[in-house]
Amino acid sequence: MLKLPTDSNRYLRVRSFRYFSVPVALFLTAGLLPVVGCDRGHSADVVATVNGHAIMKTELDKAFKTQLGEQQQPQQQPSQEQADSLRLNILRELIDEEIVEQRAAKMNLTATNEEVDAKVAEMKAPYTEEQFNERLKASNHTLEDVKHDLRRTLTINKLLNKEINSKITVTDADVTSYFNQHKYEFNLNETQYHLGQIVVTDVPSAQSGNLQNSKATNDVEAKKKIQALKNRLDSGEDFGAIAMNFSEQPATAPNGGDMGFAGESQLHADPAVFTAVTKLKAGEITEILPLLDAQSKKPAGYVIYKLISREPAGQRDVNDPRVQQAIRQQLRDGRSQLLKNAYLEMLHDQAKVENFLAEQIFKNDAH
Asked: What is the torsion angle, in degrees rounded to the nearest 10, for the CA atoms of residue 69, residue 120, residue 102 and residue 99?
């Protein structure tokens, strides 16, 4: 989950290569701050141009609201300088996206209507039509906004896959070399447990975090709900699906309850959890356990854990398929990011860019 920064520079953070993943703006809400005006013989609605194509103030406003909503804590507003810095960073992202999108169009790689519709259907799949529309409304986005963002994302990814990712090769020698230089990374000093969880709390004010917006508000409701979920698990229903729809832990419910790996020493912090988990075989679940508040260590609800896998302590071998896969993916990701950065700089050098917002901020503040 996103951890909100507490220092005054939180508004200066940007998400590098924002367009390499499906946009999540659909599920975000934010506040709006006034935008700095622009002049120099162009429309006030235009904040920049890329090879003559205008980037509109409305597009910048929308991206600003979304990113500010991700970073801002309640009742806090950025200073004018922080807001201007954030707008400049976001506009640079929009400029970069436009540059790459124009390149994709020249190579006939623009995403088709069918590809966009398929991705929309994928996004809507976990929700009912009513739930999906509620999220659109809450985020002040329309379906056309979502399709526009998806088309841009799919288009740019098609270009990058063709120009970069398809040309990256990781050889067996590369894997062996990396392993020999980083052998310590594959030596577990203690047994690791890959766990999933389904959580039900008795805290009325807590967010549900699940697709069904299911939330217990007291201990009686929590106990009744967790028992009903345990019965469904015992009858063979999928753990991940139950977690996504009903677990009340926002950090893990969207991932089917997946908590990642926990070391044996971490499990010792709660003897009941340690005893229950260490008895499991991969794929098995615990009985219903009391959920303890992390701070007070007092009961705060109930939890069911699933042991997804157990990794014993010791040195892993280079021939282990999981080691091979992890190294290949890491090397591929590293090379891909480096080439994407270089590719974007090349395209940026070839483009004619006018950033009117930057000019206006400099004009206003340089007096």
From this structure: 20
Between 149-153, 282-286, 292-296, 336-340, the lowest mean confidence (pLDDT) is in: 292-296
Number of helical (H) and strand (E) elements in the chain, helices listed first: 12, 9
Q: What is the DSSP string of 183-239?
A: GGGGEESS-EEEEEEEEEE--TTS---STT-----SHHHHHHHHHHHHHHHHTT--H
Question: Dihedral of CA 174/177/179/184: which sign?
Answer: negative
**pLDDT tens profile 180-217:** 999 999 999 999 999 999 999 988 876 778 888 889 98
Q: Which fold has domain 17-166+342-365?
A: Triger factor/SurA peptide-binding fold (1.10.4030)
Per-domain boundaries in the chain: 17-166+342-365, 190-312
Please give the CATH topology (third level) of the domain spanning 190-312: Chitinase A; domain 3 (3.10.50)
pTM here?
A: 0.65
